[in-house]
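ugh ok so i messed up the first submission bc i forgot one of the chains. this is the corrected input, ALL of the components this time, i swear. 476 residues overall. if the numbers dont match what u have on ur side tell me asap before i send this to the collaborators (the ones from the other lab, u know who)
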Amino acid sequence: MPKSDDGVVARFSLRERTVHWLAALSFVYAALSGLSLWSPHLYWLATVLGGGVTTRWGHPWGGTLFALVLAVMFSSWAAQMRLTGEDRVWLRGMRQYATHNTEGLPEPGRFNAGQKMLFWTQAACVLLLFASGLVLWLPEMMPRGLRLAAILIHPLTAITSIGGIIVHIYMGTAATPGSLRAMLRGWVRPGWAAAHHPKWYRETSKR
Amino acid sequence: MHTVAKLIDTSTCIGCKACEVACQEWNDQKFTVGAFDGTYQTMEDLDHNFWNLIKFNEIERPDGGMTWNMAKYQCMHCVEPGCLTACPAPGAIYRQADGIVDFDHDKCIGCGYCITGCPFDVPRLNPVTQKVYKCTLCSDRTAAGLEPACIKACPTNCLTFGTRSDLIQIANARTAELQDDGYTDAGVYNPQGVGGTHVLYVLRDASDPEQYGLPKDPTIPWTVSLWKGPVKWLGSLVFAGGILGAFFHYLRYGPKTYDEAAGDDHAEV
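and heres the new structure output, hopefully the right one now
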């Protein structure tokens, strides 16, 4: 990472980036293999991923890896993701944010309220996905009532989770130039920090 | 094309279990020794290598006596099969033109969704091969013009094989006989919640099929129907909407830009 006197600001540590990309890789595998088992129309995904039997074996393990990585992510980020009063004001003005008119919105800290909402949504989803996934993983050990609940809860939470990640990928790449580099290389330009996370930028540059 | 079916007249079943043996023999299944539970029933339940079970349902009569409501228990070969609805692997479960619902074990991935989708709790997972098994209605025999093994072995003609329409007529006729004999609640079990079945029963008391171990009004579980219906549409909407929404947002509003040079002054505020 370039040093701060090279005119850049450190945004994500190597540990944070490693955890993020482990989560991303396991998520993509779990999502694609999961979609292949969701509907016969998407079963071709299972063929691409090594066949139906392999996918039935691999999907639960991929999901378990994702859940474990998310537990690590949770332990390092949960405190920073707490929603504040300002965040609630920001969320009410989300439409303004989406149309690039942030005038009058509270200044975001290290994470804006949208990022925080994504974090909590994914945290809740992974809990439900893992619990219901465990039931679907070992059907012969589970009572029928639980299996019937899991077979509905699992796809519903998966839809929520994947929907959130579609927005997340767009926001983190095309919609916000400089974001992807922040997560890959760990640094951002001062102008980026001042524009997107002004409160955080002031705090870091004071140090 | 006529579809085929199996008719089970519970009023003439004597519990001899010849059908169980014939099923094991024809399908070349090893018998797993179970625990003796003090009844005449061979096994507590179906298993991946035991597809046909006579249930010795013990019913207490109003006069204090006991009646055996014997009922042959196996795959019902539903017209609208819950197992097929739930199955993610195309071709692993299929419905033949003659109405038989059969499994292709080369395509089965062992997910067990069919077990959850079945309203009769019939399919069983083999923990070693991780494939699911159930009665095939002897599709390998019927394809060659033979009747299923269980029917071949039945000594009392309690079991009949034929076209479904013929068997429904026979079942109705037998029901009328039973009603004449005083079994006023006699009836045919052909549950419409699953579109009807290719295994039909004549019950001496059709008012309460649960006395025979049969569900009263079986349907594909609502969570499975919801998952395979509205939830699928909801998911498609979210995925397509998310991708298209992001794309059109970019066309309309473009990226969030920032001033490359800005920031340093800001820091000193």
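quick check: Chain A touches chain B through 52 residues (CB under 8 Å). that seems consistent at least. Chain A has a mean pLDDT of 95.
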